[in-house]
Amino acid sequence: MNVKLYNQPLEKIGAELTLEFVDAKTFETHPHHALLTQAGFKAEQEQLCALHEHRLLVCGIDKEMSDELYRSAMATAVKSAMSYAYTSLKCSQYTPERFRALIEGVVLGSYKFESYKSEPKPSKLTEVIFSNENNDGSSNAIDTLETILTQTLVIAKATNFVRSLVNQTPDDMTPKQMAITADILAQSNNLECTILDVNGLEDEKMFAMLSVGRGSAHPPRLIHLAYKPENPKRVITLVGKGLTYDSGGLSLKAATSMVTMKMDKAGGCAVMGIIKAVSELKLDIEVHAFIGAVENMISGNAYKPDDVLRAKNGKTIEVRNTDAEGRLVLADVLGYAQENVKADFLFDYATLTGACMVALGPYTTGVMGHNEALKQEWIEAGAASGEYCGMLPFNRHLKKLIKSDLADVCNVSSKPYGGAITAALFLDNFIDEDMKEKWVHFDIAGSAYTESAWDVHTYGGTGAGVRMTLNWLMEHCK
Ligand code: BES
Ligand code: ZN
Ligand code: ZN
Predict the structure, then answer these.
(1) Ligand 1 neighbourhood includes 355 CB (under 6 angstroms)
(2) Of the candidates 208, 285, 319, 437, which lies 20 to 30 Å from 402 by C-alpha distance?
(3) Calpha distance 33→11 (Å, rounded)
Protein backbone atom coordinates (compact mmCIF):
# COMPACT_ATOMS: atom_id res chain seq x y z
CA MET A 1 0.00 0.00 0.00
CA ASN A 2 1.33 3.43 -0.93
CA VAL A 3 0.87 5.97 1.83
CA LYS A 4 1.04 9.62 0.82
CA LEU A 5 0.79 12.97 2.54
CA TYR A 6 -0.59 15.99 0.65
CA ASN A 7 -0.29 19.57 1.83
CA GLN A 8 -3.90 20.21 0.83
CA PRO A 9 -7.35 20.33 2.39
CA LEU A 10 -9.15 17.01 2.20
CA GLU A 11 -11.80 18.12 -0.30
CA LYS A 12 -9.11 19.25 -2.77
CA ILE A 13 -7.51 15.81 -2.86
CA GLY A 14 -8.65 13.58 -5.69
CA ALA A 15 -9.36 10.07 -4.41
CA GLU A 16 -12.12 7.59 -5.17
CA LEU A 17 -13.15 7.02 -1.57
CA THR A 18 -13.09 9.17 1.58
CA LEU A 19 -12.67 7.66 5.01
CA GLU A 20 -14.17 9.41 7.98
CA PHE A 21 -13.93 8.44 11.64
CA VAL A 22 -17.11 9.22 13.54
CA ASP A 23 -17.66 9.10 17.30
CA ALA A 24 -21.04 9.24 19.05
CA LYS A 25 -20.84 13.01 19.45
CA THR A 26 -19.95 13.95 15.87
CA PHE A 27 -22.50 11.39 14.71
CA GLU A 28 -25.35 13.47 16.18
CA THR A 29 -24.64 16.35 13.83
CA HIS A 30 -23.33 14.30 10.89
CA PRO A 31 -24.69 15.44 7.48
CA HIS A 32 -25.65 11.81 6.71
CA HIS A 33 -27.06 11.08 10.16
CA ALA A 34 -30.44 9.84 8.89
CA LEU A 35 -28.97 7.64 6.19
CA LEU A 36 -26.39 6.14 8.54
CA THR A 37 -28.99 5.52 11.23
CA GLN A 38 -31.17 3.75 8.71
CA ALA A 39 -28.21 1.52 7.87
CA GLY A 40 -27.90 0.59 11.54
CA PHE A 41 -24.79 2.67 12.18
CA LYS A 42 -24.28 3.56 15.86
CA ALA A 43 -20.71 4.91 15.81
CA GLU A 44 -19.49 1.94 17.82
CA GLN A 45 -15.76 1.25 17.73
CA GLU A 46 -14.78 -0.13 14.31
CA GLN A 47 -18.34 -0.31 13.07
CA LEU A 48 -18.23 0.38 9.32
CA CYS A 49 -20.76 1.81 6.95
CA ALA A 50 -20.08 2.48 3.28
CA LEU A 51 -22.20 5.14 1.60
CA HIS A 52 -21.14 4.29 -1.93
CA GLU A 53 -23.34 6.92 -3.55
CA HIS A 54 -21.34 9.51 -1.56
CA ARG A 55 -18.03 7.68 -2.05
CA LEU A 56 -17.76 7.70 1.73
CA LEU A 57 -16.64 5.06 4.19
CA VAL A 58 -17.60 5.84 7.75
CA CYS A 59 -15.83 4.12 10.64
CA GLY A 60 -17.08 4.33 14.21
CA ILE A 61 -14.70 5.28 17.00
CA ASP A 62 -15.23 4.83 20.73
CA LYS A 63 -15.59 7.94 22.89
CA GLU A 64 -12.19 7.32 24.49
CA MET A 65 -10.70 8.18 21.06
CA SER A 66 -7.15 7.10 21.97
CA ASP A 67 -4.42 6.64 19.37
CA GLU A 68 -4.67 2.90 19.95
CA LEU A 69 -8.36 2.92 19.01
CA TYR A 70 -7.61 4.95 15.87
CA ARG A 71 -4.78 2.61 14.90
CA SER A 72 -7.01 -0.40 15.20
CA ALA A 73 -9.98 1.32 13.51
CA MET A 74 -7.77 2.35 10.59
CA ALA A 75 -6.65 -1.27 10.16
CA THR A 76 -10.27 -2.43 10.07
CA ALA A 77 -11.30 0.37 7.71
CA VAL A 78 -8.46 -0.23 5.26
CA LYS A 79 -9.20 -3.96 5.16
CA SER A 80 -12.79 -3.15 4.32
CA ALA A 81 -11.78 -0.59 1.67
CA MET A 82 -9.59 -3.27 0.09
CA SER A 83 -12.63 -5.45 -0.49
CA TYR A 84 -14.17 -2.88 -2.87
CA ALA A 85 -13.01 -1.83 -6.32
CA TYR A 86 -11.74 1.62 -5.35
CA THR A 87 -8.09 2.31 -6.10
CA SER A 88 -7.50 5.24 -3.75
CA LEU A 89 -8.63 6.33 -0.31
CA LYS A 90 -8.21 9.70 1.38
CA CYS A 91 -8.38 10.71 5.00
CA SER A 92 -7.52 13.65 7.25
CA GLN A 93 -5.60 13.39 10.48
CA TYR A 94 -5.54 15.14 13.81
CA THR A 95 -2.37 15.24 15.91
CA PRO A 96 1.10 14.13 14.83
CA GLU A 97 0.93 11.14 17.22
CA ARG A 98 -2.45 10.14 15.80
CA PHE A 99 -0.96 10.41 12.31
CA ARG A 100 1.65 7.82 13.33
CA ALA A 101 -1.08 5.50 14.61
CA LEU A 102 -3.12 5.89 11.41
CA ILE A 103 -0.15 5.10 9.15
CA GLU A 104 0.54 1.99 11.23
CA GLY A 105 -3.11 1.04 10.86
CA VAL A 106 -2.83 1.30 7.07
CA VAL A 107 0.48 -0.52 6.59
CA LEU A 108 -0.05 -3.24 9.20
CA GLY A 109 -3.78 -3.66 8.58
CA SER A 110 -3.42 -4.03 4.80
CA TYR A 111 -0.76 -6.73 5.13
CA LYS A 112 -1.59 -9.96 3.30
CA PHE A 113 0.58 -13.05 2.97
CA GLU A 114 -0.36 -14.96 -0.17
CA SER A 115 2.89 -16.72 -1.12
CA TYR A 116 1.25 -20.11 -0.70
CA LYS A 117 -1.93 -19.32 -2.64
CA SER A 118 -1.98 -20.54 -6.21
CA GLU A 119 -4.24 -17.61 -7.11
CA PRO A 120 -3.36 -14.59 -4.99
CA LYS A 121 -6.06 -11.94 -4.92
CA PRO A 122 -4.41 -8.53 -4.89
CA SER A 123 -6.70 -5.72 -3.80
CA LYS A 124 -7.55 -2.86 -6.16
CA LEU A 125 -6.79 -0.31 -3.48
CA THR A 126 -3.19 0.82 -3.89
CA GLU A 127 -2.95 4.21 -2.23
CA VAL A 128 -4.03 5.95 0.92
CA ILE A 129 -3.65 9.72 0.91
CA PHE A 130 -3.59 11.83 4.06
CA SER A 131 -4.37 15.52 4.11
CA ASN A 132 -2.33 17.61 6.56
CA GLU A 133 -5.55 19.41 7.37
CA ASN A 134 -7.67 18.32 10.29
CA ASN A 135 -11.41 17.94 10.06
CA ASP A 136 -11.85 21.02 12.24
CA GLY A 137 -10.03 23.15 9.66
CA SER A 138 -6.74 23.40 11.58
CA SER A 139 -3.56 21.93 10.12
CA ASN A 140 -0.21 20.51 11.20
CA ALA A 141 3.25 21.56 10.01
CA ILE A 142 3.96 19.53 6.91
CA ASP A 143 7.65 18.99 7.86
CA THR A 144 6.72 17.38 11.15
CA LEU A 145 4.24 15.11 9.42
CA GLU A 146 6.68 14.18 6.66
CA THR A 147 9.27 13.09 9.21
CA ILE A 148 6.66 10.99 10.98
CA LEU A 149 5.53 9.45 7.70
CA THR A 150 9.05 8.41 6.62
CA GLN A 151 9.93 7.05 10.06
CA THR A 152 6.67 5.20 10.59
CA LEU A 153 6.79 3.62 7.13
CA VAL A 154 10.27 2.21 7.81
CA ILE A 155 9.18 0.69 11.11
CA ALA A 156 5.82 -0.64 9.88
CA LYS A 157 7.42 -2.16 6.78
CA ALA A 158 10.11 -3.79 8.94
CA THR A 159 7.27 -5.25 11.01
CA ASN A 160 5.68 -6.69 7.86
CA PHE A 161 9.09 -8.02 6.81
CA VAL A 162 9.24 -9.94 10.11
CA ARG A 163 5.69 -11.23 9.61
CA SER A 164 6.57 -12.62 6.19
CA LEU A 165 9.63 -14.42 7.54
CA VAL A 166 7.60 -15.94 10.37
CA ASN A 167 4.83 -17.00 7.99
CA GLN A 168 7.13 -19.11 5.83
CA THR A 169 6.85 -22.84 6.29
CA PRO A 170 9.50 -24.80 8.18
CA ASP A 171 10.53 -26.45 4.94
CA ASP A 172 11.10 -23.09 3.26
CA MET A 173 12.61 -21.21 6.18
CA THR A 174 15.24 -23.65 7.42
CA PRO A 175 18.24 -22.50 9.51
CA LYS A 176 20.28 -22.32 6.30
CA GLN A 177 17.58 -20.23 4.62
CA MET A 178 17.47 -17.92 7.63
CA ALA A 179 21.20 -17.39 7.21
CA ILE A 180 20.74 -16.68 3.49
CA THR A 181 17.96 -14.19 4.32
CA ALA A 182 20.24 -12.46 6.83
CA ASP A 183 23.01 -12.29 4.26
CA ILE A 184 20.70 -10.72 1.66
CA LEU A 185 19.56 -8.16 4.25
CA ALA A 186 23.19 -7.43 5.12
CA GLN A 187 24.03 -6.74 1.49
CA SER A 188 21.07 -4.44 0.85
CA ASN A 189 21.40 -2.55 4.16
CA ASN A 190 25.18 -2.39 4.47
CA LEU A 191 25.41 -4.60 7.55
CA GLU A 192 28.19 -6.93 8.59
CA CYS A 193 27.11 -10.55 8.54
CA THR A 194 28.87 -13.54 10.10
CA ILE A 195 27.45 -17.06 9.92
CA LEU A 196 28.66 -20.04 11.92
CA ASP A 197 27.77 -23.51 10.65
CA VAL A 198 28.11 -26.75 12.66
CA ASN A 199 31.91 -26.68 12.45
CA GLY A 200 31.99 -23.10 13.64
CA LEU A 201 29.61 -23.92 16.48
CA GLU A 202 31.83 -26.83 17.53
CA ASP A 203 34.89 -24.56 17.51
CA GLU A 204 32.98 -22.18 19.76
CA LYS A 205 31.97 -25.04 22.10
CA MET A 206 28.28 -24.24 21.70
CA PHE A 207 27.15 -27.74 22.60
CA ALA A 208 23.78 -26.82 24.07
CA MET A 209 22.66 -25.29 20.78
CA LEU A 210 24.28 -28.09 18.76
CA SER A 211 22.47 -30.76 20.80
CA VAL A 212 19.07 -29.24 20.11
CA GLY A 213 19.76 -29.31 16.38
CA ARG A 214 21.31 -32.77 16.27
CA GLY A 215 18.12 -34.67 15.36
CA SER A 216 17.34 -32.49 12.36
CA ALA A 217 18.13 -32.94 8.67
CA HIS A 218 18.62 -29.14 8.60
CA PRO A 219 21.77 -28.32 10.59
CA PRO A 220 21.85 -25.18 12.79
CA ARG A 221 23.36 -21.78 12.04
CA LEU A 222 24.42 -18.92 14.25
CA ILE A 223 23.76 -15.61 12.56
CA HIS A 224 25.42 -12.35 13.61
CA LEU A 225 24.34 -9.11 11.90
CA ALA A 226 25.97 -5.82 12.86
CA TYR A 227 25.10 -2.22 12.11
CA LYS A 228 28.03 0.06 12.93
CA PRO A 229 27.55 3.81 12.40
CA GLU A 230 30.60 6.04 12.84
CA ASN A 231 30.08 7.59 16.27
CA PRO A 232 27.46 5.48 18.01
CA LYS A 233 25.81 6.84 21.15
CA ARG A 234 25.28 3.31 22.46
CA VAL A 235 26.07 -0.32 21.69
CA ILE A 236 23.07 -2.64 21.85
CA THR A 237 23.02 -6.43 21.57
CA LEU A 238 19.85 -8.21 20.50
CA VAL A 239 19.49 -11.98 20.71
CA GLY A 240 16.66 -13.92 19.05
CA LYS A 241 15.37 -17.48 19.38
CA GLY A 242 15.22 -18.84 15.86
CA LEU A 243 13.63 -22.29 16.12
CA THR A 244 12.58 -22.82 12.51
CA TYR A 245 10.48 -25.69 13.82
CA ASP A 246 9.79 -26.95 17.32
CA SER A 247 8.33 -30.45 17.27
CA GLY A 248 9.28 -30.77 20.92
CA GLY A 249 11.97 -33.33 20.07
CA LEU A 250 11.74 -36.67 21.92
CA SER A 251 9.49 -34.96 24.49
CA LEU A 252 7.23 -34.71 21.46
CA LYS A 253 4.45 -32.15 21.41
CA ALA A 254 0.84 -33.29 21.13
CA ALA A 255 -0.46 -33.10 17.56
CA THR A 256 -2.58 -30.02 18.16
CA SER A 257 0.16 -28.13 20.03
CA MET A 258 2.66 -28.75 17.25
CA VAL A 259 0.63 -26.83 14.67
CA THR A 260 1.90 -23.20 14.43
CA MET A 261 5.36 -24.11 15.74
CA LYS A 262 6.90 -22.63 12.60
CA MET A 263 6.47 -19.40 14.56
CA ASP A 264 9.13 -20.48 17.06
CA LYS A 265 11.62 -18.50 14.98
CA ALA A 266 9.77 -15.22 15.61
CA GLY A 267 12.37 -13.86 18.06
CA GLY A 268 15.12 -14.36 15.50
CA CYS A 269 12.99 -12.78 12.78
CA ALA A 270 12.18 -9.83 15.10
CA VAL A 271 15.84 -8.96 15.69
CA MET A 272 16.40 -9.06 11.91
CA GLY A 273 13.50 -6.62 11.44
CA ILE A 274 14.79 -4.34 14.20
CA ILE A 275 18.30 -4.07 12.74
CA LYS A 276 16.73 -3.50 9.30
CA ALA A 277 14.73 -0.53 10.61
CA VAL A 278 17.65 0.87 12.65
CA SER A 279 19.90 0.84 9.60
CA GLU A 280 17.25 2.40 7.34
CA LEU A 281 16.59 5.17 9.88
CA LYS A 282 20.38 5.60 10.15
CA LEU A 283 20.20 5.80 13.95
CA ASP A 284 23.44 6.62 15.80
CA ILE A 285 23.35 3.32 17.66
CA GLU A 286 25.58 0.33 17.09
CA VAL A 287 23.31 -2.70 16.96
CA HIS A 288 24.27 -6.36 16.96
CA ALA A 289 21.66 -9.01 16.20
CA PHE A 290 22.46 -12.63 17.09
CA ILE A 291 20.14 -15.43 16.01
CA GLY A 292 20.27 -19.07 16.99
CA ALA A 293 18.63 -20.78 13.99
CA VAL A 294 17.90 -24.41 14.84
CA GLU A 295 15.28 -27.09 14.14
CA ASN A 296 14.12 -29.27 17.06
CA MET A 297 13.27 -32.73 15.67
CA ILE A 298 13.25 -36.41 16.54
CA SER A 299 15.65 -39.00 15.12
CA GLY A 300 17.96 -41.78 16.29
CA ASN A 301 20.53 -39.06 16.79
CA ALA A 302 18.32 -36.57 18.62
CA TYR A 303 19.26 -35.25 22.07
CA LYS A 304 17.40 -36.84 24.94
CA PRO A 305 15.82 -36.22 28.32
CA ASP A 306 18.60 -37.37 30.75
CA ASP A 307 21.38 -35.85 28.65
CA VAL A 308 23.72 -33.40 30.35
CA LEU A 309 24.95 -30.62 28.09
CA ARG A 310 27.86 -28.25 28.55
CA ALA A 311 27.03 -24.70 27.44
CA LYS A 312 29.51 -22.23 25.99
CA ASN A 313 30.07 -20.50 29.35
CA GLY A 314 31.06 -23.84 30.91
CA LYS A 315 27.86 -24.45 32.90
CA THR A 316 26.32 -27.91 32.71
CA ILE A 317 22.62 -28.44 32.05
CA GLU A 318 20.49 -31.45 32.93
CA VAL A 319 17.92 -32.01 30.17
CA ARG A 320 14.63 -33.29 31.53
CA ASN A 321 12.46 -32.13 28.66
CA THR A 322 13.65 -31.68 25.07
CA ASP A 323 10.73 -29.32 24.41
CA ALA A 324 12.36 -26.70 26.63
CA GLU A 325 14.87 -26.23 23.81
CA GLY A 326 14.72 -22.49 23.25
CA ARG A 327 16.47 -21.75 26.52
CA LEU A 328 19.27 -24.18 25.58
CA VAL A 329 19.83 -22.42 22.27
CA LEU A 330 19.68 -19.01 23.95
CA ALA A 331 22.14 -20.12 26.66
CA ASP A 332 24.82 -20.53 24.01
CA VAL A 333 23.86 -17.58 21.83
CA LEU A 334 23.81 -15.27 24.89
CA GLY A 335 27.25 -16.59 25.81
CA TYR A 336 28.60 -16.04 22.31
CA ALA A 337 27.06 -12.55 22.05
CA GLN A 338 28.53 -11.39 25.37
CA GLU A 339 31.95 -12.77 24.51
CA ASN A 340 32.00 -11.00 21.13
CA VAL A 341 30.41 -7.63 21.90
CA LYS A 342 30.76 -5.41 24.96
CA ALA A 343 27.31 -3.85 24.89
CA ASP A 344 25.54 -1.20 26.96
CA PHE A 345 22.36 -3.27 26.90
CA LEU A 346 21.41 -6.85 26.10
CA PHE A 347 17.86 -7.71 25.03
CA ASP A 348 16.57 -11.13 24.02
CA TYR A 349 13.35 -12.04 22.19
CA ALA A 350 11.93 -15.54 22.31
CA THR A 351 8.70 -17.49 21.88
CA LEU A 352 9.91 -19.23 25.00
CA THR A 353 6.98 -20.56 27.04
CA GLY A 354 3.33 -21.45 26.77
CA ALA A 355 3.27 -20.40 30.43
CA CYS A 356 3.74 -16.77 29.40
CA MET A 357 0.37 -16.95 27.63
CA VAL A 358 -1.20 -18.53 30.69
CA ALA A 359 0.14 -15.66 32.79
CA LEU A 360 -0.56 -12.69 30.52
CA GLY A 361 -2.99 -13.84 27.87
CA PRO A 362 -2.31 -14.33 24.17
CA TYR A 363 -1.61 -10.68 23.22
CA THR A 364 0.97 -9.56 25.72
CA THR A 365 4.76 -9.81 25.73
CA GLY A 366 6.31 -10.85 29.04
CA VAL A 367 9.06 -8.52 30.27
CA MET A 368 11.61 -10.01 32.67
CA GLY A 369 14.97 -9.03 34.13
CA HIS A 370 16.79 -7.72 37.21
CA ASN A 371 16.63 -3.99 36.51
CA GLU A 372 13.28 -2.58 37.63
CA ALA A 373 13.78 0.88 36.12
CA LEU A 374 14.86 -0.57 32.79
CA LYS A 375 11.84 -2.91 32.68
CA GLN A 376 9.59 0.06 33.42
CA GLU A 377 11.08 1.88 30.42
CA TRP A 378 10.05 -1.07 28.28
CA ILE A 379 6.52 -1.14 29.63
CA GLU A 380 6.29 2.50 28.59
CA ALA A 381 7.86 1.84 25.19
CA GLY A 382 5.27 -0.88 24.65
CA ALA A 383 2.38 1.39 25.57
CA ALA A 384 3.70 4.25 23.43
CA SER A 385 4.19 2.06 20.37
CA GLY A 386 0.99 0.03 20.54
CA GLU A 387 2.38 -3.27 21.82
CA TYR A 388 1.14 -4.85 25.05
CA CYS A 389 3.83 -5.60 27.64
CA GLY A 390 3.53 -7.02 31.13
CA MET A 391 6.17 -7.51 33.80
CA LEU A 392 6.66 -10.90 35.40
CA PRO A 393 8.67 -10.65 38.63
CA PHE A 394 11.61 -12.83 39.66
CA ASN A 395 12.04 -14.12 43.20
CA ARG A 396 14.62 -16.28 44.96
CA HIS A 397 12.17 -19.12 45.61
CA LEU A 398 11.33 -19.55 41.93
CA LYS A 399 15.07 -19.67 41.24
CA LYS A 400 15.35 -22.81 43.40
CA LEU A 401 12.88 -24.66 41.15
CA ILE A 402 15.45 -25.14 38.38
CA LYS A 403 18.15 -26.60 40.63
CA SER A 404 19.58 -29.91 39.43
CA ASP A 405 20.91 -32.73 41.60
CA LEU A 406 23.04 -33.92 38.70
CA ALA A 407 24.29 -30.82 36.87
CA ASP A 408 24.62 -27.07 37.51
CA VAL A 409 21.07 -26.30 36.42
CA CYS A 410 18.03 -28.12 35.04
CA ASN A 411 16.24 -27.07 31.85
CA VAL A 412 12.78 -27.40 33.39
CA SER A 413 11.21 -26.38 36.66
CA SER A 414 10.20 -28.90 39.33
CA LYS A 415 6.82 -27.17 39.71
CA PRO A 416 4.19 -26.59 37.01
CA TYR A 417 3.58 -22.91 37.81
CA GLY A 418 5.44 -19.73 36.89
CA GLY A 419 7.03 -21.34 33.84
CA ALA A 420 7.72 -18.07 32.01
CA ILE A 421 9.70 -16.78 34.99
CA THR A 422 11.62 -19.99 35.67
CA ALA A 423 12.59 -20.05 31.96
CA ALA A 424 13.95 -16.50 32.31
CA LEU A 425 15.76 -17.50 35.52
CA PHE A 426 17.33 -20.33 33.56
CA LEU A 427 18.64 -17.77 31.03
CA ASP A 428 19.98 -15.72 33.93
CA ASN A 429 22.60 -18.48 34.42
CA PHE A 430 24.10 -17.44 31.10
CA ILE A 431 24.17 -13.68 31.69
CA ASP A 432 27.61 -12.42 32.77
CA GLU A 433 27.83 -10.70 36.17
CA ASP A 434 28.50 -7.27 34.62
CA MET A 435 25.47 -7.59 32.30
CA LYS A 436 22.82 -8.56 34.87
CA GLU A 437 21.43 -5.03 35.23
CA LYS A 438 21.67 -4.38 31.48
CA TRP A 439 19.66 -7.40 30.39
CA VAL A 440 15.94 -7.69 29.60
CA HIS A 441 14.22 -10.84 28.36
CA PHE A 442 11.05 -10.66 26.25
CA ASP A 443 8.82 -13.72 26.06
CA ILE A 444 6.80 -13.23 22.86
CA ALA A 445 5.17 -16.69 22.84
CA GLY A 446 1.70 -15.16 22.85
CA SER A 447 2.26 -11.90 21.01
CA ALA A 448 4.28 -13.13 18.01
CA TYR A 449 1.62 -15.09 16.19
CA THR A 450 -2.15 -15.08 15.81
CA GLU A 451 -4.67 -17.29 14.06
CA SER A 452 -7.41 -14.67 14.27
CA ALA A 453 -7.09 -10.98 13.45
CA TRP A 454 -6.88 -8.55 16.37
CA ASP A 455 -5.90 -4.88 16.53
CA VAL A 456 -3.62 -4.20 13.54
CA HIS A 457 -2.74 -7.87 13.19
CA THR A 458 -3.88 -10.15 10.41
CA TYR A 459 -3.60 -13.95 10.43
CA GLY A 460 -0.04 -15.20 11.09
CA GLY A 461 3.09 -13.52 12.39
CA THR A 462 2.55 -10.15 14.08
CA GLY A 463 6.08 -8.74 14.08
CA ALA A 464 5.98 -8.44 17.90
CA GLY A 465 8.99 -6.63 19.35
CA VAL A 466 9.79 -4.41 16.38
CA ARG A 467 7.70 -1.32 17.14
CA MET A 468 8.38 -1.27 20.89
CA THR A 469 12.13 -1.74 20.40
CA LEU A 470 12.40 1.08 17.86
CA ASN A 471 10.47 3.24 20.30
CA TRP A 472 12.82 2.37 23.19
CA LEU A 473 15.96 2.87 21.07
CA MET A 474 14.83 6.26 19.78
CA GLU A 475 13.80 7.36 23.24
CA HIS A 476 16.76 6.10 25.29
CA CYS A 477 19.80 6.16 22.98
CA LYS A 478 19.69 9.80 21.91
N1 BES B 1 8.22 -22.89 21.66
C2 BES B 1 7.69 -23.37 22.86
C3 BES B 1 6.84 -22.33 23.61
C4 BES B 1 5.57 -21.91 22.95
C5 BES B 1 4.38 -22.58 23.21
C6 BES B 1 5.54 -20.83 22.10
C7 BES B 1 3.22 -22.19 22.59
C8 BES B 1 4.36 -20.42 21.51
C9 BES B 1 3.20 -21.11 21.76
C10 BES B 1 8.78 -23.82 23.81
O11 BES B 1 9.92 -24.33 23.21
C12 BES B 1 8.20 -24.91 24.65
O13 BES B 1 7.83 -25.91 24.12
N14 BES B 1 8.12 -24.67 25.95
C15 BES B 1 7.56 -25.60 26.85
C16 BES B 1 8.40 -25.59 28.10
C17 BES B 1 8.12 -26.72 29.04
C18 BES B 1 8.54 -28.03 28.44
C19 BES B 1 8.87 -26.47 30.33
C20 BES B 1 6.12 -25.20 27.15
O21 BES B 1 5.83 -24.00 27.18
O22 BES B 1 5.29 -26.07 27.30
ZN1 ZN C 1 9.74 -26.42 22.78
ZN1 ZN D 1 10.31 -23.63 21.28
Answers:
(1) yes
(2) 437
(3) 20
Residues 6+ apart with CB under 8 A from 264: 241, 243, 244, 245, 246, 296, 326, 351
- CB-ligand 1 contact for 464 (6 Å cutoff): no
Contact 303, 320 (CB under 8 A): no
pLDDT digit string (tens) for 330-366? 999 999 999 999 999 999 999 999 999 999 999 999 9
Establish whether 327 is a catalytic residue.
yes
324 in Cβ contact with 199 (< 8 Å): no
Please tell me the distance between residue 321's alpha carbon and the centre of ligand 1 in angstroms: 11
Q: From CA 478, how far away is CA 466, in angstroms rounded?
A: 18
Contact 130/3 with Cβ under 8 angstroms?
Answer: yes
Give the model's confidence band at 245: pLDDT under 50 very low, under 70 low, under 90 confident, else very high.
Answer: very high
Mutating to test ligand 1, I would choose from 353, 363, 392 the residue with most ligand atoms within 8 A of its C-beta, which is 353
Q: Going by DSSP bridges, is the β-strand pair 308-310/316-318 parallel, antiparallel, or unpaired?
A: antiparallel
**Is the distance from CB of 385 to CB of 468 less than 8 angstroms?**
yes
Beta strands 316-318; 234-246: pairing state: unpaired
- The sign one gets for the Cα dihedral 213, 216, 219, 220 is negative
Confidence of residue 135 (pLDDT cuts 50, 70, 90): low
Amino acid (one-letter) located at 196: L
How far apart CA 328 and CA 66 sit, in angstroms, is: 41
Any ligand 1 atom below 6 A from CB of 240: no
Whether ligand 1 lies within 6 angstroms of the CB of 220 is answered as no
pTM of the model: 0.98
Average pLDDT over residues 274-286: 98
Instruction: Classify strands 439-443 and 345-350 as parallel, antiparallel or unpaired.
Output: parallel
- List CB contacts of 352: < 8 A, sequence separation 6 or more: 241, 326, 327, 330, 420, 423, 424, 441, 443, 445
Task: For residue 193, report the distance from its CA to the centre of ligand 2, in Å.
Answer: 28
Q: How far is the CA of 452 from the centre of ligand 3 (A)?
A: 21
- In whole angstroms, give the CA distance from residue 243 to residue 216: 11
Angle at 331 between CA 330 and CA 336, to 5 degrees: 90
Task: Please give the distance, rounded to the nearest whole angstrom, from the Cα atom of residue 146 to the centre of ligand 1.
Answer: 42
> Measured between alpha carbons, how far is residue 297 from residues 180, 219, 245 in Å?
21, 11, 8
In this structure, the number of other CB atoms found within 10 A of the CB of residue 408 comes to: 15
Distance CA 288, CA 341 (A): 8
* Candidate list 112, 233, 234, 253, residue with the active-site label: 253
